[in-house]
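Researcher: Going back to the complex we discussed earlier. I've cleaned up the inputs and rechecked each line, so this should be the final set. Can you rerun the prediction on the complete assembly and write out the structure?
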Amino acid sequence: MLLFLIGLRGVNFMFWKRYLISFAITIIFFIGAFYLSNQLAQKKIDQVRVIQDKISTDILSTETRFILLGSSSCKHVQSSEEFEASLTEELSEMARRVKFMESQLGYDDERVLLIKNQYSLFQIKDYLLHRQIAERCGEEITTILSFHNLTCSDCKEQSIVLDEIHNKYPAVRIYWLDTDSNTPAVKTLVSMFDVKSTPTIVIGEKKYEGFQSIEVLSEIFDNIEKLKQKAIDLKAKQKSSKPTSTNIVPTVSPTSKNITTPVVSDTATTVESKTTTNAPEVKN
Amino acid sequence: MLITDILLYTTIFASVYVQVLFLLSFFEKKELLQKYNLNNIINENELPPVTFLVPCWNEEKTISKTINSIKNLTYPANKIFIHMIDDGSKDNTWKELSKFSNDPQISIFKKENGGKFSALNYSLPEVKTEFVASFDADTTINEDALLKIISYFTKDKDISAVGGSILIKSPKTMAQKAQSVEYQMFSFSKKVLALLGGPLVVPGAFSVFKIDTLRKVGGWKDGHGLEDLELTYRMQVNGYKVEHSHDSIAFTTGPKTIRNLFTQRLRWGYGFLKNTKDYKSAIFNKKFGNFGIFTLPMSLMSYFIIVIVFGISWYNIFLFLYDKFLVLKLLGVRALFGHISFNLFYFNTKAIVFLSILTIIFFAITIIFGRKISNVREKNFGHIFYFFILYSLIVPFWVIKNIWNALISNRPAWR
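Model: Rerun complete. Updated structure for the full complex:
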């Protein structure tokens, strides 16, 4: 740069020619590198959008199922395991890619912010729909809400642990929510669960503040998996003997349900309490 | 953009710029490479006599080899004189030298230890020839090297000094293998700087000077332990033309161990920084042509580029290892090896990656051309691997130490 400025001041152009040409070539190399990088980033963003479209369609399907519940009973609108598993995988792939794009383009890149925003909304919508379906029909997907942000010290550790949880329990659906996000829905969720610090994770509806180790989380999920398995086994047994009582949690009547206002104040009905109360109930 | 990003892109820009300028200058002036080749050599009778000055300090083992190497030169024997100067050696150097006392070609001198520059100056008044060659006692030389170097002087009367190309003699240790690649690169950069008319240094290991010029500028000086660099600076600042003979090859041993290499570079770095400071008025001074405008600032800048580039690379390696450490701490050993997926999506495609690849390509070209112009034929490409590993690990250390030493004027030991 300095050479260039001095170059402009110089009288003898022939002497400076070499320096100026080199400078121009270097600039061309730089423009080329940045152009190539930008093109590839755009390609990646497009790829992420494709996944996003898939997620969007899947969530629409879940939503439609929920609406159908208004006129039909739970057993007629059951979801398939494959469907839920693929959606879980898509969401986790999406999370990974968004995280990677953040590291590539920076946290304040507009394209990244837009994708992150849409992704957050998809997650929240999916989460709320599933909670309501669960309340209505007891069809349970184990979920983790992970509240995190850039500045928090233990978030990195927590995300490493949660990634491992995803590998260990592929059926567990993890939602990543950046508490610094400006998306109103994320803010609503933050106040809904009264998240004061990060990392905070919510499993089912139970809140855990601060870093949770792989051992602690594994224990929780082992119990849930076990209990769930037990519940399913018993349910199957019960079905064969008493085919009419399939509703495990008969809470709210279908007509009074409102999609847009989720019931959150009632934290008594956590996943654990539900499953634990279910187990003895069916024993009778 | 982060501050480290700005710093990194600035330094990458500077180094790409320098490399582009090198290659551009090389291709622009390529035909000059042929200008001084042997076909132009004048007939044998017109060859000027040359005196070799060989300072020896504890070199009992290498002396006879060195003398033989000089005697084997394709050059009329009656036109070669050798001054062997014992600079107060503590071993049997003097005894070894005494064996040659009856050789009419060889004069031997003994003096109190006073450093290489003082040994070179010691026999200077005794030199009767038009040309004088400085030569290291641990160096051997290709047979045609002198003939080629002399052809520069006979072709261009304005030239006052010509440096030879130095390579590493049959490298054995890892440190020497790494150096062999480095010297091949030097070969290219020295040539380009000479083509631009501003070499950084004519190597003390093998260079030829016009005795007149040498006497006019006052012979060698201590030069903070780098008498060859200081002399090259002084000659150019005084307007004398300095050249580089890329195919006049001399072989030096090079430090065997990494520790010795480190010590050598502390000496070089200290000498470079201190001498450059002494001649700072020449930096960016157009009066001294490309030597002032390019050679000095570029050499100085490359110091800081090295610190920044390696600093940031290390920082990134540290971050990577820290992530691995976290995984190890949180999840145990098994998690370190699981879930490796190769998805093109996750390839880093930041601009810096492409620019780094470009820089590596430039490095490769430098090595290839360096080998080509110095006629290196051994296909020891494995040495390049040693070079990158070893130098990326230790260069930042010695560069930082050099800067520190220069700042507090702590002159490192010779060996």
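Model: Worth noting: DSSP finds eight helices and four strands in chain A.
Researcher: Good, that matches what I expected from the previous run.
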